[in-house]
Amino acid sequence: MGGQNESMSDSFAERLLAWFGERKRDLPWRKNKNPYHVWVSEIMLQQTRVETVIPYFERFIARFPTIHDLAEAPEADVLKMWEGLGYYSRARNLQAAVREVQASYGGVVPSDAVQIATLKGVGPYTAGAILSIAYDVPEPAVDGNVLRVMTRYKLLYDDIAKAKTRVRIENILRPLIPLQAPGDFTQALMELGSLVCVPKNPKCDICPVAADCEAKLAGVQSELPVKTKAKQPRAEFRAVAFVQRMIGGERKFLLRRRPEQGLLAGLWECPHIEHDDTQTDIPLLSEHCAAEYGIPMQRSERMPDFEHVFSHIHWHLRVYRFHVDDEFHGNDAKHVGVDGLPEHVRWVSVRELGDYTLPLVFSKIIRQGVSV
Ligand code: SF4
Questions:
Q1: Are residues 239 and 354 in the same domain?
Q2: What's the rounded Cα separation, in Å, for the pair 186 and 174?
Q3: For residues 124 and 119, what is the distance between their CA atoms, to the nearest angstrom?
Q4: Which pLDDT belongs to residue 339?
Q5: Is 150 a member of any domain?
Q6: Ligand 1 binding pocket includes 149 (Cβ within 6 Å)
Q7: 181 C-alpha to ligand 1 centroid (Å)
Q8: What CATH number does the domain containing 109 carry?
Q9: Same domain membership, residue 116 and residue 21
């Protein structure tokens, strides 16, 4: 069905909905209009591809089928189910918000635009998505896909990195939302952005709204949308210690828990320190582990380097394997946790790893470390 063959007398919404009816993907969160499921899917889909989200969503909903289940779950379980998806504050905010829904709204996601906007992690986009998709409230939900489609369709050179552009597009969309199908309209616009009006080489020849798309008519669709470049992430050089020893005939490695606030809050990782690229990092790492954990480090060997890019930091990780003498028993009096380690540090075997939530890059480092 080509856009050019569509009747111009059909409205934008009618053409879009007809296309969506035929082409929409069968996604697990489209099986019903459960507001909690819509909410979880929308949070997971932020900065993450649909294909990646599908298995996470299915596992998450199987483990926490209702708001009550998620509200009551220990945070560590929630983070474990989120492991590898990144941006862990999304999971924390989701649980905090779900607890709020449980406490203040009897476990029912509010269908009121003002109430829903007060929930943690629920911005204008997520609020619009839940209200329209789950409750058929005629509220716009403007994400990156919708910004792209609409700036092209309306030939707008506004910078989509700016919040006021989102507000402008919301105002353009409001009168276009068909009252009989706000949820389908929201999903159809997003679907058009994901499948047809894609960032590079939009597929205008199969687009249902091509006949009156102003960017297409002007032949400038590839110039839009305008987006100012985000700042490059700052480079940070870190030396990582994969510290291993035998305990009770089992190989274990050292993990520490990150602080409760800030980057990757509360997740587990191998110890690491920042260094400038000119420093010799092995003595610094050894000193760190001796001073912080009371562990005398011995032989070391270089492992492959790793990298991880956050939105604002680019980690360059130089990784070393350290061996700890079997004679060491770790009973330094200043440490009070398990094995004489500080409370936030553990010796962990591969078998026990399932109890700990790790950022993806440290899962990779440990997989590499235990493969030898
Ligand atoms: S740019 Fe092309 S794909 Fe995008 S809305 Fe216009 S006609 Fe459709």
A1: yes
A2: 11
A3: 11
A4: 63
A5: yes
A6: yes
A7: 22
A8: 1.10.340.30
A9: yes
| pTM for the structure as a whole | 0.79
CB 317 within 8 A of CB 361: yes
Provide the residue range defining the domain that includes 165.
Answer: 3-223
pLDDT in tens, 173-227: 999 999 999 999 999 999 999 999 999 999 999 999 999 999 999 999 999 999 9
Same domain, 84 and 156: yes
Q: Per-residue pLDDT averaged across 248-271, rounded?
A: 91
Q: Is the CB of 204 under 6 A from ligand 1?
A: yes
Q: How far apart are alpha carbons 253 and 243 in whole angstroms?
A: 5
Both 173 and 45 in one domain: the answer is: yes
At 296, phi and psi to the nearest 5?
-80, 120
Nearest to 244 by CA among 319, 331, 355: 319
Question: Does 229 reside within a domain?
Answer: no
- Report which protein residue has its CA nearest ligand 1's atom 7: 210
In terms of Cα–Cα distance, which of 204, 194, 198, 214 is closest to 152? 214
Distance CA 261, CA 271 (A): 17
Question: Quick one: tokens of 128?
Answer: 């619009």
139 CA to centre of ligand 1 in angstroms: 23
Q: How far is the CA of 239 from the centre of ligand 1 (A)?
A: 47
297 lines ligand 1 (CB under 6 A): no
* 72 and 129 housed in the same domain: yes
Query: Which of 42, 170, 191, 269 is the catalytic position?
Result: 42
Q: Is the C-beta atom of 153 inside 6 A of ligand 1?
A: yes
With a 6 Å cutoff on the Cβ, whether 207 touches ligand 1 is yes
Q: Is residue 291 part of a domain?
A: yes
301 found inside a domain: yes
Q: Domain end: 194, 223, 252, which one?
A: 223
Total domains present in the chain: 2
Verify that 42 and 150 share a domain, yes or no.
yes
Q: Which ligand 1 atom is at minimum distance from the Cα of 202?
A: 3
Per-chain mean pLDDT for the chain: 90
Probe residue for ligand 1, chosen from 192, 200, 204 as the CB with the greatest number of ligand atoms within 8 Å = 204
User: Do 77 and 152 sit in the same domain of this protein?
Assistant: yes
Minimal-distance CA residue to ligand 1 atom 6: 213
- Partners of 11 in the β-ladder: none
- 191 in active site: no
Considering the domain architecture, whether residues 219 and 240 belong to the same structural domain is answered as: no
